[in-house]
Structure formats: structure tokens, C-alpha cells
UniProtKB/TrEMBL annotation:
SUPFAM superfamilies: P-loop containing nucleoside triphosphate hydrolases. Residues 124-256 form the AAA+ ATPase domain. Pfam families: AAA. One of its GO terms (molecular function) is ATP binding. It comes from Zhongshania marina. The lineage of its organism: Bacteria, Pseudomonadati, Pseudomonadota, Gammaproteobacteria, Cellvibrionales. It comes from the Bacteria. SMART domains: AAA. This is ATPase. CDD domains: RecA-like_protease. InterPro entries: AAA+_ATPase, AAA_ATPase_domain, ATPase_AAA_core, P-loop_NTPase. PANTHER family: AAA-FAMILY ATPASE (PTHR23077), ATP-DEPENDENT ZINC METALLOPROTEASE FTSH (PTHR23077:SF198).
Length: 335
């Protein structure tokens, strides 16, 4: 017989629409029954869970049924604050250094075993701060975590959140944090320094401080099962109090030559001529971000498609990388 805690966890996860947690607790019940010698019952429970997973409701177009998440699409005022998507990205789609890969694997593992962790009075990591230069994979990380965990990705729209009226931004923040309880998902605050520093409302330092204090209080009190992710290119201007409110800090860096070669090879090797030196190309591309490398590779592919070229040369790739580097310098100067 399932324990009282397991029964409560099953009911709570069902009421919250938290499918992953529901299945996790159900499998714990099955394991518990197996240990008690109830092998047939345990096998029947596992079969039911597997059957339920295989029948996860999907509406035409491959979108998850809204029944899986109480608020699968933000409505009313929330529609101006959150945009929702259902990423299919996986961790294997990213090129990461070992340290960052291990951090993300640990976060995913803890989330998948959240019910077990919570049942022992512990908390899985779910409040994350991502810091690093533009184009290094911070936004992709939010998509990957949502994809790996089967959760919707709610991206906070700063244009709808940040206003010039006293108290209004804090009230909108409250709506977002209320949503984390009603709709489990990955809540992504990009350009987080707009909230966590004086860059957001430079004309009213007092209001900026009120917004920051509100966020600090809300994230500290948040006990939902959603993931809350902040991403910034400017960690140096964040308020120090913010760092203590997050469970994990993930550092993103520009790719080294090994990772550059991996990105270029994964996207272009199918069409590249045999004598292409990925090491030589990587040395030339040092200093470019993952996003810039991807754009350069896409330019090569588009040019080959337009010209109906079956093979691309190392010179073609090198030229695209140089153009991207030149454009990147121009953009940085203008900003």
C-alpha cells in the first residue's frame, strides 16, 4: 500500500497538472510494492504508467494538450507579460564545456527526481542565473531545460513588464510569480539586468529599488515547482543580493577552438570537401560566439543552395566567418 506521503504527492501533482512528478511518484509506489513482495501489482503499476506516458495528449500540429498545464497559453494581462512555446530541444543539441554540461545534467536529473528529493525535505535546483556574453547559449539553455523536462517555456516580455508608473511593474511581477504556481513551466527572464540593476528605469532610482526589492522577496518566497531562470550579459551590474536568491550560477563563455570546430563540423561536414581543415577554420573563428558561428554556417548553406552547389570549400567557410567577424565588430561599435 502506498504511504500517506506518496498518496498526498500523487493528488497534489494531479491537481497542479504536474505530469512528470505524478509519474515519478507513481513509479515510487510501484517500487515500494515490489520491495514488499507484490511483484504482480508493481508490474501492473509500471505498465499503467508506461501506457499513460505513451498516450500523452497531443493536439493536431504536435502541441501538447492544454490539460497537461493549467495555463498552457497566457490569457488576459498575462498575455502581455508572457509568451509561451513548447521547445523540443535536447541537451545533446548544445556544444558545452564539461563543467557547464555537468551542471545542466545535474539540474535535469534533480528535476526528474523532484518528488523523491522533496519527500526527504530537500529541494531540487530550479532557480538559475545564467551569465555570459551574448550568443553563448543562455537562451538555448532555457529551451533545452523545457524540452528535456517536457515543460512549456514562458518567456517574460520585458516590454510588457517594465513601466514608468510607480508600483505597476511590481504588480505585474506578482502576476508572473502567481503563474509559476498555477502553470508549471520554465519561466525565462532574459536581459535580467533590466530588473536587477539601475538600467531598467534610470530616471527613477527609487522605483528601480522598489522593483528589485519586490523581485527579491518574490523569488525567495516562491515555492512552486516551476523553474525560474534569469539571464544577463552584465553580471557585474547586478545587485549582490540577487546572487544569493538563486540555487545555481551558470557561467557561459565564448567557444574555444575545439568547440568552434565541433560547431562548424556538425553543421557543414555533410557538404564540405574532404580536405577541409576544421582546426584551421576554428583558429580563424576564435572570438566569435556560438550564435555567430551558427549564422556564418547558415550563410554558407544558403549560398550553396542558391548556387545549386553540391560541395562547399574551406575558402567558402572562411569567407563567411570573416564576414561575420566584420559584421560583429560593426555592430559592437554601433552599440
Amino acid at each position: 500500500m502506498a504511504s500517506a506521503d506518496q498518496l498526498k504527492a500523487l493528488l497534489q501533482s494531479h491537481l497542479e497538472g504536474d505530469e512528470n512528478r505524478f509519474y515519478s511518484v507513481a513509479m515510487q509506489v510501484a517500487a515500494h510494492e515490489a520491495k514488499r513482495g507484490h511483484g504482480k501489482l508493481a508490474e501492473e503499476l509500471r505498465a499503467l504508467v508506461d501506457q499513460a506516458k505513451s498516450r500523452r495528449s497531443v493536439v493536431p500540429g504536435g502541441m501538447p494538450d492544454s490539460k497537461a498545464v493549467p495555463i498552457s497559453k497566457p490569457r488576459g494581462e498575462l498575455a502581455n507579460l508572457l509568451s509561451v512555446s513548447y521547445p523540443k530541444s535536447r541537451l545533446g543539441n548544445m556544444v558545452l564545456n564539461n563543467e557547464l554540461a555537468l551542471q545542466l545534467e545535474r539540474i535535469i536529473l534533480e528535476q526528474r527526481h523532484a518528488a523523491e528529493i522533496l519527500s526527504h525535505g530537500l529541494s531540487p535546483r530550479r532557480k538559475l542565473l545564467l551569465v555570459g556574453p551574448p550568443g553563448t547559449g543562455k537562451t538555448m539553455t532555457a529551451s533545452v531545460l523545457a524540452g528535456e523536462l517536457g515543460l512549456p517555456l514562458f518567456q517574460v516580455r520585458l516590454d510588457g513588464l517594465i513601466t514608468k508608473f510607480m508600483g505597476e511593474t511590481a504588480a505585474k511581477l506578482r502576476q508572473i510569480f502567481d503563474s509559476t504556481h498555477h502553470a508549471r513551466g520554465v519561466y525565462f527572464f532574459d536581459e535580467f539586468d533590466a530588473i536587477g540593476s539601475q538600467r531598467g528605469l534610470a530616471n527613477d532610482v527609487g522605483e528601480v529599488r522598489r522593483i528589485l526589492n519586490s523581485f527579491l522577496q518574490m523569488i525567495e518566497q516562491d515555492d512552486s515547482h516551476s523553474l525560474i531562470i534569469g539571464a544577463t550579459n552584465h553580471p557585474d551590474i547586478l545587485d549582490n543580493a540577487l546572487f544569493r536568491r538563486f540555487d545555481d550560477l551558470l557561467h557561459y563563455e565564448l567557444p574555444d577552438e575545439v568547440n568552434i570546430g565541433s560547431v562548424l563540423k556538425s553543421r557543414l561536414s555533410r557538404l564540405a570537401v574532404k580536405n577541409t581543415s576544421w582546426k584551421r577554420l576554428a583558429a580563424k573563428a576564435l572570438g566569435l560566439s556560438y550564435a555567430e558561428l551558427t549564422r556564418a554556417a547558415d550563410e554558407v548553406l544558403k549560398t550553396a543552395l542558391i548556387k545549386r552547389t553540391e560541395k562547399i570549400s574551406e575558402k567558402d567557410i572562411s569567407q563567411a566567418l570573416e564576414e561575420r567577424r566584420w559584421l560583429s565588430k560593426r555592430l559592437n561599435k554601433s552599440s
